[in-house]
Amino acid sequence: MLPRPLTPLAAPNGAEPRGRTLRRAPLSRARAGLGGPPLLLPSMLMFAVIVASSGLLLMIERGILAEMKPLPLHPPSREGAAWRAAAQDPGAPTPEAGDSDLRVLQDVRNRTLRAVCRQPGMPQDPWDLPVGQRRTLLRHILVLAGVLDNVDVRLKMDHHSDLVFLADLRPEEIRYRLQHYFKFLFVRDPLERLLSAYRNKFGEIREYQQRYGAEIVRRYRPGAGPTPAGDDVTFAEFLRYLVEEDPERMNEHWMPVYHLCQPCAVHYNFVGTYERLEADANQVLEWVGAPPHVRFPARQAWYRPVSPESLHYHLCSVPQALLQDVLPKYILDFSLFAYPLPNVSREACHQ
Fold first, then answer.
1. Which of 1, 45, 180, 242 could disulfide-link 196, Cβ–Cβ 3.0 to 4.6 Å?
2. What is the per-residue DSSP string for 180-245?
3. How many domains does the chain have?
4. Which of 147, 151, 182, 192 is nearest to 58 (CA)?
5. CA angle 321, 323, 324 (to 5 degrees)
6. Statement: residue 42 has pLDDT above 60
7. Within a domain: residue 33?
8. H or E element, residue 57
9. What is the residue range of 276's domain?
10. How far apart are CA 198 and CA 299, in angstroms?
């Protein structure tokens, strides 16, 4: 499973030199909350194509491997037009150019985002968000601004000390990057994302077992005792916990992507999907003018992604009423990013 949702920002060609030098190139992600004025949900027709996933906010800068220098506050006059034209021109070549189904999905996703985000009261800028939501968003948009001598280097980065977030920058630097950098978001099927987080966090990571698992078991398992280990949380217990959680206070790994990445407040130039992660990531690298030797890393050999069969099994193993309570919390993720709602009818689950 991917560590967090990522969202990339890349500087326009020849744009501002960077402000700091790191030993490792950081990844980027995003999260944020929903709040303020009531939302206008998409129509039932929009629900036919529903979506969402872990929002990967990567901020990829044009000079990924170049030495970083101070950040100018004013954009260059004509530089950086290439990626801008490609991102805004519907006819620009994309990985989906020869695939009509993917082009339709991409078009539905773009139209749905525009329709929802144009509704009165929807945020048009991070500064339109309440303070708490803006803080969450800026703390999870990562700025790729490091230096790597070798893109094949094997290392494990500390998310807190090795990465630069928008929240680490001054307000004028934040505004500059949001206005002039290439911004992209990666999404994933909402329920697949939840199952992946469940398996990884409660099956492998002691910190999550102690911090969240023990509380979930105490709350939802009769006779659990005062100090459960938290390493045997069931998927149904996890879903019950999500039903009662405020989306704005959720952990980033299961917070709805709408709250995490705020796709109305941040105008992403590209929305990629986990299902086409390698192809979409390489398209982004091409758009931002990354050197040819910079490529999307191969999947780690030990990683075992959630399979459709595993997802189907887990969804059919929990009460349908519980799923009906969980889905509304992620409905904007489904609808905005064109992912279908799961079929957990009795007939489908008996196949």
1. 1
2. HSEEEEEE--HHHHHHHHHHHHHHH-HHHIIIIIHHHHHHHSTT--SS---S---HHHHHHHHHHS
3. 1
4. 182
5. 65
6. no
7. no
8. strand 56-58
9. 41-64+98-348
10. 20
